[in-house]
Amino acid sequence: MVPLNWYLVLSAIVFMIGVFGFLTRRNIIIMFMSIEVMLNAVNISLVSLSHYMQDMRGQILVFFIITVAAAEAAIGLAIIIALFRNKSTVHVDEMSEMKG
Amino acid sequence: MLPELFFGYYAAMIVFLSVLVITRKNPVHSVMWMLLLFFHIAGLYLFLNAEFIAAIQVIVYAGAILVLFLFVVLLLNLREELQTAKFIRSWPAGLLISGGIIVAIISALRSFVLAPQGMHTIEFIKRETHTKALGTILYTEYLFPFEIASLVLLVAIIGAIVLAKKKTRS
Amino acid sequence: MPGTYLPSDYLPILVFLMVATAFGMGALLIGSILRLRRPYPEKLMPYESGNPPVGEPRQRFSVKFYIIAMLFVVFDVETVFLYPWAVVFDKIGLYAFIEMIIFIVILLVGYVYAWRKEAFKWD
Description:
The structure holds three protein chains of three kinds. Chain A is mainly alpha-helical. Chain A has helices spanning 4-24, 28-53, 57-87. Chain A has three helices and no strands. The model of chain A has no long low-confidence stretch (mean pLDDT 88). By secondary structure, chain B is mainly alpha-helical.
């Protein structure tokens, strides 16, 4: 018998790892991957809640989150490409000007 | 006994792999560890009786989004990245903030009460099959969000092309 | 009962994965124990007895690869939406058909836009 709390704690730990990566890494691609890790942590908690509540609406939400994650990855990586074209760096500390 | 064993394996691997993802210096290695991470999360979904979600985790996340990440990593120049420091100098502050978040979440779990049980029991899903049960809700109750999802994807296409495509100068 | 659920239908896949992993790692391990190892410089070249390589191995890719990959991601997600639709089609019928037509038409606008912007042109 695996209690629900185990899944929720796992999700919290993975979310924490994502937050830590986002705050401390300066490579914009890895910061972006940290966001994906955080999204997956949320998905784990949604699917486990859906399973323990025996209600599938949580999984529908996961479906939409994955759709939005795909759109977000497409746009975000395009922004990274546009930034790299102007600044030729992926280091966020060097992107400190508002003017392109 | 067996469910706990599988959960232990998946939980340990997921935590370990996410740490690897955020600590690698070379983004290509991060992407590779992330691939393994997504497969393990898909395996965890199977144990939560969500086989269609596990399938789209593999198809969309591992199959499509990571390919996009890999292309971008290869598109950009990596060489000077391998020589700069991995973390910022004030990384303990990051640890403090993320540790505060996890303490807040786990202390909130103690007063957590599960809502009343719904109708999608394991027997129901087994009889109906998971994809069919999911599709029935998605295409009746969640019709409007489903159409909005297409708009989100449309914005993704247009925005990505506008941002990434080189201006064709004549 | 949630918490004790085991996906017993997937037992063959678990066995398959274990055998595949064991076979892959075992073959590499046995090979590394048994094989002879007498390296000399010519043998260690990337192309044995060929031209020595010129330039950086990590060349920058063209941005066209990104555009194609991005279009693949978006239409992959669209296809994922088609699976449950196809499964429940006989249950919901015309209603489901119309909503999917709207969905596809909206995405078709993006497809036409990509076409007009010459995202599919390679040269």
